[in-house]
Write a structure and sequence with these properties.
- The complex is a heterodimer.
- In chain A, 75% of the residues lie in helices and 0% in strands.
- Chain A is an all-alpha fold.
- The longest helix of chain A has 52 residues.
- The N and C termini of chain A lie far apart (82 Å).
- In chain B, strands 1-2 form a two-stranded antiparallel ribbon.
- In chain B, a hairpin with a 4-residue loop joins strand 1 and strand 2.
- Chain B is globular and about 80 Å long.
- The chains are: A mainly alpha, B mainly alpha.
């Protein structure tokens, strides 16, 4: 009986030491894994800048691809082509996405149909991009009997819609109800309230959402493989195959020529710079509230 | 009446777009509605005339809500259209092979025999291996960022981990081909073979391209998905759960285990499944480093093939209708599988985040 408290104290001390040790071990593990995870990021970006910057030159932005062995050449047509495809995708995808988001936030809140649409959008968001490519091929390309920039734009637009719909909905949900009620109280029609008050108040967030969706599809290659297809020459015709930066990087990366590998690195650097610059710019502006519509 | 008028004015103020953000209080509706009903003369206001202009008429409201409904329905329409188009175009292959398509081991376009089992194997092995690598790391990073990391470092580190998600797939592939593949071939591969060679899963020859390299790239690519969603889920755990654990004398790790991980476990599983969905359909980076060889091998260094990469590689070269429809059937299978996986994951994540917001509100 007399020895029991002593033992308990010793056991307690040992237990305490073990618990503290576990705590420190887990803390160390968490810090270590954060470092491990950031390593590939640093490795990729570092290598990209190192390899890409040394291959970038003026010709890259002004010339079309040169034949093998000829040296020089650039990706001017791919940059423009990417712009055309992304422009088409934004034109088709952004209005529909915002519309769907407005419906979810302003009409479908708490209703069965709203929940189903929301769920479908989330699920559609996770569908692999290559499947979009196959579907648009079957839908557009095989009907038209030729690849086209329009088909590429449609594939990317389909990918933009669910993302934009969900962010628009979330942003509209942050608009206080009292503002809408004030508008209704003034006898303003519901649609006018949504357009001039809800959407306008939420516009910085919605613009950010659109830019993020844009950045996400800007680097997509898989849906363009058999829709836009790629092109070695200038093309501005939306009904014809068109070059795109990610496609050109893919083709050049798997080619056996050193010259083309260098161009692939340069292309990747330009692509990633475009994406990162747009995302960070939008973040900065949105944070400062500079994107509020109008005044 | 005067009071009501004042009320209307003050609530109308934010409609101007001046400073609506700070307003949080609800239920101002009653007095405002009353003011509108009694039709008391409101002072002429530029804002109101502007907003009311061109807006009266019920048809405008109806048309607007109709258009918005149409936009929302387009999401259903897209899903239905994709299913319809894929089924129609893979008809030939579905009829020719039936269910044997998914258990056939031979993929030979020349003799017209198409079995998708090697691709299913490659997809499953590479995705599961990627999960095995990414999940522990992602959970550790989430815990670090939420519970351990000093506040000033929190935002920059989470921004950096999200940058990983912003890198396009093709750039990962490019990096994989020129950096990761040689690294795997010359440095990591031999070590793994010496340590784990006895399992038979890490055997020579090791060309650098293969299932294992693809899994490593996949792990890096799905990490941001798992990390950000599991962080959302952990953040949704009420603070008093943490405080209760600490008050009972728990160490920080015990608090995380009892207070956070146990409460968030369903949502964490959801985030992992979401990562799986991403891994199953990832195309470009995998295609560039997996070796593209339709075979079922136990050796992880052996080249493989996935559902997504066979489509990417062979679609434009497919000759003959049966070949093309077999590839489209693979696309259909991939679509259905990812739909199911994502649906399960979303339900699990919602189960956690929804329940909590409801309890808090």
């Amino acid at each position: 009986m007399g020895s029991l408290p002593v033992r308990t104290a010793r056991v307690e001390r040992a237990l305490k030491a073990r618990r503290t040790a576990t705590n420190h071990a887990v803390t160390g593990l968490a810090i270590a894994s954060t470092v491990v995870v950031l390593a590939p990021l640093v490795a990729i970006l570092g290598y990209l800048i190192f390899k890409g910057a040394s291959s970038l030159n003026w010709a890259f932005f002004t010339h079309v691809p040169a034949p093998v062995g000829e040296g020089g050449g650039g990706m001017a047509n791919s940059i423009v082509g990417s712009g055309v495809i992304l422009g088409l995708a934004s034109l088709l995808g952004i209005p529909v996405g915002i519309g769907a988001g407005v419906y979810l936030a302003e009409y479908g809140r708490g209703r069965m149909i709203g929940n189903i649409v929301r769920f479908t959008a989330d699920v559609l968001n996770g569908v692999p991009s290559i499947v979009m490519g196959v579907a648009v091929y079957a839908l557009v390309v095989s009907r038209q009997q030729h690849f086209s920039a329009l088909a590429g734009g449609i594939a990317l637009a389909i990918m933009m819609v669910p993302t934009i719909a969900r962010t628009t909905e979330e942003m509209l949900a942050t608009v206080p109800h009292s503002i809408r009620e004030a508008a209704f109280g003034l006898g303003i029609a519901k649609w006018r309230t949504i357009v001039s008050i809800s959407l306008r108040t939420a516009s910085p967030g919605i613009i950010t959402g659109c830019m993020l969706a844009f950045a996400r599809v800007a680097g997509e290659t898989a849906p363009l493989l058999f829709t836009a297809f790629g092109n070695q020459f200038w093309s501005f015709n939306v009904n014809q195959p068109i070059a795109a930066l990610p496609l050109q990087i893919y083709v050049y990366a798997l080619s056996p020529y050193d010259e083309w590998h260098r161009l692939a690195w340069a292309g990747a650097l330009v692509l990633i710079a475009l994406i990162m610059v747009s995302v960070t710019l939008v973040r900065v502006f949105a944070a400062r509230g500079m994107l509020k519509g109008g005044n | 009446m005067d009071e009501l008028k004042q009320e209307t004015q003050s609530t109308a103020e934010p409609a101007n777009g001046a400073g609506p953000i700070a307003m949080r209080q609800m239920q101002v509706a009653a007095p405002v509605a009353a003011a509108a009903k009694t039709g008391g003369e409101m002072p002429p206001s530029v804002v109101r005339t502007f907003l009311q202009g061109k807006s009266s008429g019920r048809w405008a409201d109806g048309a607007f809500s109709g258009v918005m409904l149409l936009c929302a329905m387009s999401i259903f329409f897209i899903v239905a259209l994709i299913v319809f188009v894929l089924v129609m175009n893979s008809n030939e292959s579905i009829h020719a092979f039936g269910w044997h398509f998914f258990v056939g081991r031979v993929w030979n376009p020349v003799s017209g025999r198409f079995g998708a089992l090697p691709f299913i194997w490659g997809t499953l092995v590479s995705s599961l291996l990627a999960l095995a690598m990414a999940v522990p790391l992602a959970l550790c990073v989430s815990i670090f960022l939420l519970e351990i990391c000093p506040l000033p470092l929190r935002a920059p580190i989470s921004f950096l981990t999200e940058l990983l998600a912003a890198i396009p797939s093709v750039v990962y592939g490019l990096w994989g081909v020129f950096v990761l593949v040689p690294l795997m071939r010359d440095h990591v591969g031999p070590v793994l073979e010496r340590v784990l060679g006895w399992t038979g899963s890490f055997a020579e020859p090791n060309f650098g391209v293969g299932l294992f390299t693809a899994s490593v790239i996949l792990a890096v690519m799905i990490f941001p998905v798992i990390s950000s969603i599991s962080r959302d889920v952990m953040r949704a755990v009420p603070v008093n759960q943490r405080e209760a654990a600490l008050a009972l004398g728990a160490t920080r790790w015990e608090m995380i285990r009892i207070g956070v991980l146990r409460n968030a476990r369903i949502g964490i599983v959801g985030s992992v499944i979401l990562g799986l969905g991403r891994a199953l359909g990832e195309t470009m980076a995998v295609t560039m480093v997996i070796g593209n060889h339709a075979a079922i091998a136990k050796n992880l260094f052996a080249p493989g093939y996935t559902l997504a990469s066979v489509i990417a590689n062979e679609f434009t070269e497919a000759t003959g209708d049966l070949y093309l429809s077999a590839l489209i059937e693979i696309g259909l299978a991939l679509f259905l599988v990812t739909i199911v996986v994502n649906a399960i994951a979303r339900l699990l994540v919602w189960a956690v985040t929804r329940g909590n917001t409801a309890r808090h509100a």
